[in-house]
Amino acid sequence: MTVAVKTGLWQLDAVRSTVAIAHKTMWGLVTVKGTFTGVTGDGEVQPDGTARGTITLDAASLDTKNAKRDAHLRGADFFDAERHPSLVFAVRDAVLRQGDTVEVDGELTVLGVSRPQSATATVTESSADAITLTTEFTVDRERFGMGWNQLGMLRGLTAVTATLRFTRTTA
Fold first, then answer.
1. Residue 71: what are its φ and ψ, rounded to 5°?
2. Is residue 140 assigned to a domain?
3. Residue 50 contacts by C-beta under 8 Å, 6 or more apart in sequence?
4. Rounded distance, CA 140 to CA 49, Å?
5. Residue 134 maps to a domain
6. Which range of residues forms the domain containing residue 37?
7. Is residue 2 part of a domain?
């Protein structure tokens, strides 16, 4: 695929975008999976071809298909959605590399704690007015102060998988 992305402003298409997480629990025997249903974002492609932008997740929108678990995840032990309603990934630099690979460097903010985060994305669809990127990366929740781990049940890193579709804005 040849990627030619126009300079200018781009808006995340929330209907055609997904951000999901997966984390092993129960001493590695069970993987809890969830999807954030509240996702917004925008970006700007610079004249030199680099891009900057922001992806924002509504912490209270996490859905694991288990109401009791979701309430716990939204509470103070994890996302503390009442005090920290958003998780934000601020893209500081995104550069198209060989083929359809995009190297992304940014900052992830969870619970008011910001840490550098990088990811490699793949362009899976591209036209003059839309582009879709897919990525998977891991996050160490303890780096953001999410240390709750009753009886040592939670181990390892949280996997984040995203499909993000952006459309070019006319403004």
1. -60, -40
2. yes
3. 93, 94, 95
4. 31
5. yes
6. 8-166
7. no
